UniProtKB/TrEMBL annotation:
GO MF annotation list: G protein-coupled receptor activity; olfactory receptor activity
Subcellular location(s) of the protein: Cell membrane; Membrane
One GO cellular component term noted in the UniProt record for this chain: plasma membrane
Name of the molecule in the record: Olfactory receptor
Chief site of localization: membrane
Family recorded in the similarity comment: Belongs to the G-protein coupled receptor 1 family.
Amino acid sequence: MEGERNHTSVVMFVLLGLSDEKELQLILFPIFLGIYLVTLIWNLGLIILIRMDSHLHTPMYFFLSFLSFLDICYSSSTSPRMLSDFLRDVKMISFIACATQYFVGCWMGLAECCLLAAMAYDRYVAIGRPLQYSVVMTPSLCQKMVAGAYGSGFLGSLFLTVACFHLYYCGSNIIPNFFCDITQIISLSCSDPSISQMVLFLVCTFVGFNSFLVTILSYGFIAASILKISSVKGSAKAFNTCASHLAVVTIFYGTSLSVYLLPSSNHSNKQDKVLSVFYVIFIPMLNPLIYSLRNKEIKEALKKVIKRLTHFTQ
């Protein structure tokens, strides 16, 4: 380490962004600004709608409101920086700002893994044990599950952020992406990253993999419960209650596993950026759309709110 300390410590990172072509950046700016605004409006609108309509005061929509809040925070951890970088020639980010961005984004990502697992368990109880649903999914249990999801995400993100940013950085400071990603940051370190990589593995195992396992097991039991239903209409109705959540889970884990589990030799930096854009930017926008477009209760609640507003303005 003595030889390493002779070098200047890195205090700034350079984000390469999505493209180095100025004309393309000016085209991408309004597109991603629109996506970010849609993300904020849809998620915030869904939260307000759930709070306003008493028919939506159920465990499923309780979890959904916190999922929307996660998506707002997750998108806000990267989108404003990315949008401002579109208008800059040199995309610099300080060491502290990079650590903060990663901490918030990782916290929201890990919490979403846990929350999706809680929502999968909720759907299993609703379909597999409908007569006991109100007894099992009590408000206190739902609150504890949300607190556990946020708490697990916070601790996991804290461990990862400390493990990554306590390393010594003295060489290259170029991050080939539009946000601070731990795998790319650790590769820039001048010190031994083995402990940080071990912490990354443990957090991904205990938080990410276990949440994924709970989700898979819940849907296994859901599938078994649906197969026991004799009528076709009953089976279709049971499947529809979890179709939106299943779509969100598939998109979330499908893209995240593609980004972080596939060997880097299997895809280029451009492919990494495309996958990262979908994972970080598009998913927070798609989640509320998926739940809204396929959900009759949300549509009915929205119609009621529109009627109230039109009646109030008249």
